[in-house]
Design brief:
The chain has 264 residues and is of the alpha/beta class. 21% of the residues lie in helices and 27% in strands. One zinc ion (ZN) binds next to loops.
Length: 264
Amino acid sequence: MHITVLGTGGSTGVPTLGGADGHGDWGVCDPAEPRNRRSRSAIVIEGPGGRVLVDTGPDMRTQLLACGIPRIDAIVFTHAHADHITGLDDVRLLNRIAGRPLPAFGTKATLAEIRRRFDYAFRPWEPPGFYRPVLETHEIAAGDVIKAAGLTMRTFDQDHHVVHTLGLRIGPFAYSTDLVRLDEAGFAALAGVDTWLVGCFQRAPHLTHAHLALVLEWRARLGVRRTVLTHMGIDMDFAALGAVLPAGVEPGVDGMVLTFCLKE
Ligand SMILES: [Zn+2]
Ligand SMILES: [Zn+2]
């Protein structure tokens, strides 16, 4: 199994729009460090039977092109915030490549919100062409197992304060973006995880996102071997983080690939 980390940025990306010269506000991040340039958070999971795209944010098109991902076979939505869904219109190209509506997994609340904003993607397919995205929806609840692309993905609930999001566990790997609290079922789902790609927006506490000290507390409790931070904002400079993070914790980088052996 290969995980391609399409993006590691928070909802605005790094840099954010603006800046004194109009080329972006980098916060404390060094603009000369290419690993500080972060697009919106999403991943592709490549299993024995194809590829699962997790979230379709506004940078989806350029991310798939940059990472050389030729085809997607299914989509999982973690939640319906704009930075995770507003690239959805380009899914029509993924439909054309696959030649069929794409299975899309999400909770009832998530799918309802996406449908409210992208109703045209939920209408039945009228073959033969794909002039709009066409999703074949699969409503799931946190705790359910998703089977797609030859992969078995356990889902778990994450508290994002304003909404709940889905975490994903696939064998030795887990993906947790957009969360500020985990319940005991979440910790149980993460038990024994080897590599955890986890949202960590900034250093100071935040209402809706885990901050650095909280993520470090979680990974210590879970005994995670490798923790990779994602969904990072403009106060998460790559080099500065490298100097303070404990061994086994690293900032993610757009385009990085994590590879695992699955014993299934
Ligand atoms: Zn987000
Ligand atoms: Zn969110």
